[in-house]
Amino acid sequence: MADSNWDTIVIWMNEHADRLVRTVTAVTGDSEEAQDIVQETFIRAYRALGGFRGTCNPYTFLYAIAINLVRSKKRMHAKKPQTTTYEDTIASEYGNPEASAIDNEKSRLILEAIESLPEKLKIVTVLFYLSGLSVEDICQVLNVYSATVKTRLFRARERIRQYLAEEAGYGEN
Amino acid sequence: MEKIDKDIQQALESSVRQVSFFRREAVRDKILTQNPTHRRSMFLTYGKPFVVGLTAFTVMLSMALASIAYMPNRQNPSDSDIVLVAGELPFAAVRYDREAK
């Protein structure tokens, strides 16, 4: 399979696939669906590679494809219940007895708060905090203005803060 | 970065820490078997140079055959106004006889 496009995809898979699948898992709450989406992302990236002019970073190109797939899948399966929730994920992750019970509880509440966010706020939150994308990168991925990204981040942060205050009395700390 | 930012980051990272992509082979297989673009690119990679090479070879072969077939000799001088005086072509002494026509 001596094909320069395929070689590029292999490099991108090695560099970005794990981070991409974590991001999609965090957005969808379903790791199996995330595997499907990331697989389809790389296949579409391969097909679209001819039109990739290199004006943006490869990872923003990949994230843009993945987020579009997440949105279209959400529209298709709007009524399908999720098989894995954040609570399941965090419970298995914090099976370690050394983990602090307070941090565990707080993380669980934060994930609940993120899960309850509207899709637009949730995607921006995950891209910024989990994927480590800058505001400019998120603008390219979502094709929106930087002011929009900043507003969504601010709203998401405030909602999470509010949720924590209401649920467990976590204040500004 | 405020504490809430760190808490959000930590919560998200811990929730997906053990997740990794394990469908690399599936991507490869799908691209290889189902993507017509790949077959087209395979033709562009290997097919086009082969066709170009074959065409060049055919042209050169036909030129060589034509030059052998039309090689002038004593019985068949290439130009009717050339008169062979002595020797064999292509080293023959020739004379141009414009009145021969």
Task: Please characterize this protein's 3D structure.
The complex is a heterodimer of chains A (173) and B (101). Mean pLDDT of chain A is 82; it is low at 90-99. Helix content of chain A is 74%, strand content 0%. The longest helix of chain A is centred in the N-terminal third of the chain and has 25 residues, at 4-28. In chain A, helix 1 packs antiparallel against helix 2 (31-48), helix 4 (86-93) runs antiparallel to helix 5 and helix 5 (101-115) crosses helix 8 (146-168). The radius of gyration of chain A is 17 Å and the shape is elongated. Chain A has helices spanning 4-28, 31-48, 58-76, 86-93, 101-115, 119-130, 135-142, 146-168. With 173 residues, chain A is an all-alpha fold. With 101 residues, chain B is mainly alpha-helical. Helix content of chain B is 58%, strand content 9%. Chain B has three helices and two strands, in the order αααββ. Chain B has helices spanning 3-16, 24-34, 36-69; strands at 82-86, 93-96. The longest helix of chain B is centred in the middle third of the chain and has 34 residues, at 36-69. The termini of chain B are far apart. In chain B, 9% of the residues are buried. The interface between A and B is large, with 45 and 33 residues.
